[in-house]
Amino acid sequence: MTTLLDDLRAIVGAAHVLVDDGSDALLAYERDWRKRYRGHALCVVLPGSTDEAAAVVRRCAQEDGLSIVAQGGNTGLVGGGVPDASGRQVVLGTKRLRAVRRIDVDNQTITVEAGLALQEVQSAAADAGLLFPLSLASEGSCTIGGNLATNAGGTQVLRFGNARELCLGLEVVTAQGEVWSSLHGLRKDNTGYDLRDLFVGSEGTLGIVTAATLRLFPRPRAGVTAWATCRTLADAVTLMRRLRAAFDAELVGYEAMNAASLALVGRYFEALRAPLALTDAAGAPLWSVLIDLASPHEQAVLRERAEAALAASLDAGETVDVAVPANEAQSRALWQLREAIPLAQGVEGLNIKHDVGLPLSSLAAFVESADAALQAVVPGARHITFGHLGDGNLHYNLQAPAGGDAASFLARHEIAVNACVHDVVDRFGGTFSAEHGIGRLKRGEMALRKPAPAVAMMKAIKGALDPRGLLNPGVLLPD
Ligand SMILES: Cc1cc2nc3c(=O)[nH]c(=O)nc-3n(C[C@H](O)[C@H](O)[C@H](O)COP(=O)(O)OP(=O)(O)OC[C@H]3O[C@@H](n4cnc5c(N)ncnc54)[C@H](O)[C@@H]3O)c2cc1C
């Protein structure tokens, strides 16, 4: 009788089944990006085709007590893509599923395999003269399969929607090891329940995404990036209202960063400097706002309109100062600054992250209330608040007080801090997970805060599609 490992080697080739050999060969698959979870995999299997992935699932399904964790780029922030410590989980990595299967210029779609890095999808679309607008700081490493499994957001959701809105069809290996495909590129298909939408955001718990058909867009002719500082977050929201009225769909990105988050970047990335002061003349911290405009019209016209709108915001007192970079390199540097915030936080040490979503109209009041409530829980903690303001999505993170020990800060305060922040989120009608998903990290919140009928329906769906619990148990759904 052959063993599981022999059979998996026969399916994908011996070189593509990785086992613990006493070295740290599996570490990259077993530890998450934030270094919060370190599991132990029975093995890592890297199928080279959808058929191989399906055969792996069928073979694993024959073993009692075994389960499968799908993994793309392992950049997830909630621990959903790494195995638990049981040694009874197979990591199914998608990094060999990398083909661009088709670009249909007339239909404005691209069909790619799940393991292609997001940046490679963007490049393939650009080579065809089109735009794939999903954009995250992790785009060099995260995969399109992971983006869909987490329904990733990023910096252009305001204009183009998140991964779900960009997906027209999927190819999925089911928990039974069958292949279901809807890679048709249809924009209209009302033939019953939308199965695609079930798999998007399911974090590897319902099926393994092996390919997807994605929407593409015309590449904008003109683009302007701008930076502004505001006294309050409420002012930043008002500025956004002004820009929306003036630019409508030409406003594609709107990010906000508090002074502490940019100061942290300054500490670790010397070359990345904010173009405007982080404090006002009296030393009070300012909010910085990064704005992206894109248009099918003339560059000079867009720039002129942008400068006029920002000048009006200065006159109205919504902004303290504004800057419009002179060229593309300077614009890119501003985005690098924004994208370096989570990296700087990582270097600074473990921190308590929140990925909250609120109606824009409540966002400023939420931050004020949560900041005040936390004073009683963790006095002195540093508030690193930044995010996709245009989507009402803030990364409301807490770092240990300056000079404090990050690991013990996290261990001591995480539960109380989460309860405090998420209670305020609930009070303002928001969500405790706007774009990162649930993973292992937020299952407790799911049990506490997601309405019971919603959890019951999700469990029913899971039970129907994966009755044996083969796919990513311990993730997303509460026990
Ligand atoms: C610096 C940094 C910045 C980030 N910025 C953003 C941001 O702006 N917006 C945002 O939304 N996220 C962001 N993230 C989080 C992360 O990059 C996204 O969640 C991304 O979509 C994960 O893709 P991945 O390929 O790395 O997935 P992984 O981390 O490998 O997996 C994530 C989840 O998806 C499942 N999964 C992976 N591939 C498949 C598949 N083929 N089929 C089924 N399930 C699968 C896994 O089981 C796991 O549950 C950021 C992360 C970092 C490190």
Question: What does this 3D model show about the protein?
Answer:
The protein has 479 residues and is of the alpha+beta class. The chain has 4 domains: 4-93, Uridine Diphospho-n-acetylenolpyruvylglucosamine Reductase, domain 2, CATH 3.30.43.10; 100-218, Uridine Diphospho-n-acetylenolpyruvylglucosamine Reductase, domain 3, CATH 3.30.465.10; 220-345, Alpha-Beta Plaits (2-Layer Sandwich), CATH 3.30.70; 349-441, Alpha-Beta Plaits (2-Layer Sandwich). 37% of the residues lie in helices and 20% in strands. It has 16 helices and 18 strands. It has a 7-stranded antiparallel β-sheet, with helices on both faces. Helix 1 packs antiparallel against helix 3 (50-61), helix 10 (259-268) packs across helix 12 and helix 13 packs across helix 14. It is globular, with a radius of gyration of 23 Å. The two termini are 36 Å apart. The mean pLDDT is 96.
Indicate the CATH topology of the largest domain: Alpha-Beta Plaits
Largest sheet: 7 strands, antiparallel
Quickly give the CATH architecture of the largest domain.
2-Layer Sandwich
* Count of individual helical segments: 16
Separation, N- and C-terminal Cα atoms? 36 Å
Percentage of residues in strands: 15-25%
Bound molecules: flavin-adenine dinucleotide
The percent range for helix content is 25-40%
CATH class of the largest domain: Alpha Beta
Shape: globular
Average pLDDT, rounded to a whole number, is 96
Read across the widest sheet, the strand sequence of neighbours is: 15-12-14-13-17-18-16
**How many strand segments?**
18
